[in-house]
UniProtKB/TrEMBL annotation:
Broad class of the protein's primary localization: membrane
Source organism: Streptomyces viridiviolaceus
Name of protein: MFS transporter
Taxonomic classification: Bacteria, Bacillati, Actinomycetota, Actinomycetes, Kitasatosporales
Membrane topology of this protein: Multi-pass membrane protein
Listed transmembrane segments: 53-75, 87-106, 191-210, 245-268, 280-298, 310-329, 335-359, 371-390, 402-426
PANTHER family: SHIKIMATE TRANSPORTER
Compartments where found: Cell membrane
Major facilitator superfamily (MFS) profile domain sequence ranges: 15-430
Amino acid sequence: MSTPPKPDLKDIRRLLTAAFSGTALEWYDYFLYGTAAALVFNKLFFPELDPTVGTLASFVTFAVGFVARPIGAAVFGHIGDRYGRKVSLIITVVMMGATTGCIGLLPTYDTIGLWAPALLSLLRFLQGISVGGEWSGAMLLTLEHTPKEKHGSYSSVPQLGSPVGTLLSSGAFAIVGMLPDDAFYSWGWRLPFLVAFPLLGFALYLRMHIEESPVFRAMLEDAERNGPKPAPLVEAFRRTWGRMIVGVGAAFLGVGGFFLMSTFIISYGTDDLGIDKQTMLNATVIGSVVEIVVLVLAGRLADRIGAWRVCALGAAVTMVAAFPAFWLVDTKETGLVYLGVSLGIGALSIPYAPIGAVVSGMFPEEFRYSAVAMSYNLAGVLSGFVPLMATSLTSAADGASWGAALLLIAIAACTVAGSFGAGTILRRRGAALSSPAQNVEVPA
């Protein structure tokens, strides 16, 4: 990644605030659906199904959002590479806020029948398209404004939007979850979704007042002199398909593992273990606080030893922590449940902190948005089916957690491999860029 001009510290703070705030809103909206999928949608949108089948159907609609993410990556990657990172981010935040608020207005199955799950799936699909362009744009805008030697810690700032979004969404459901069941299932569950409308106005204000990336401004000047480059996504696949596969592996744990230890764990705790829903929601809230601390520390560590090494280290720690985390939850003791969820989320947050610096650094500037977005969101497609897979595994094992723990270990192993592959690519790319022959091509 090219080193941008040294910006003013005040400008960096403004940029980081905008990137974090918008990302927090996006993830609040997105994770809100995951919590509702575990607690509400199976009862209100799939009431005619067996409870286990209803939960599976609810997680299928959850997965729809992840299937849509590569479409969003293609659309917003093209916009970000051709028309600007800022333009793309403004569109994504408006799209996410509007669709999430509309979920809070949806009639249920008892009111409109099959149209209810159909409209729910459509809105989830639109959420997925929005998220497909959001993360990569926020990450690139951050890294392309800031010094390369601080990319480890700066890349963790947009990542803080994930735990804060989870904290807000789980906290919102924890509050409305204190309502009597009749009130909660009739109107209380809608309130966290409707909050997305005013939050959208705040995030949009911040996004409108940030500066465009200096890297993109240089790309525009080059396009004016030499004409536009080929279609960014086509070039990304043609020239760097191998690096994109590596990026998928490196990013897999931070996305898929998280949904295993948040969305799935809520459903597993309430449905299979009979733990009170308030306890499981509180566990994810505590886990989110732990994640915030881990992200800050892991980001700083990445500045010292390298982002890809932190990713590999965090994935290895997760492999060791997988079974203990689930064993603690299986005790059904409130304190140990909190500890188990925090252990799982804390471990997988280590590689999540610097993953933006890892993936972004592997690709050339002219199609970086498209390549980063597609790599990250292909990992997201796989991740969207993780709660569904974990639910199927525990159901086949008569409610035992060992299948879900093994799934977490397999996901972490993919990230170990992807992190080492990324390290090799980053070293080769760094050597090529520092060579006198600046046109050295790094293999895909």
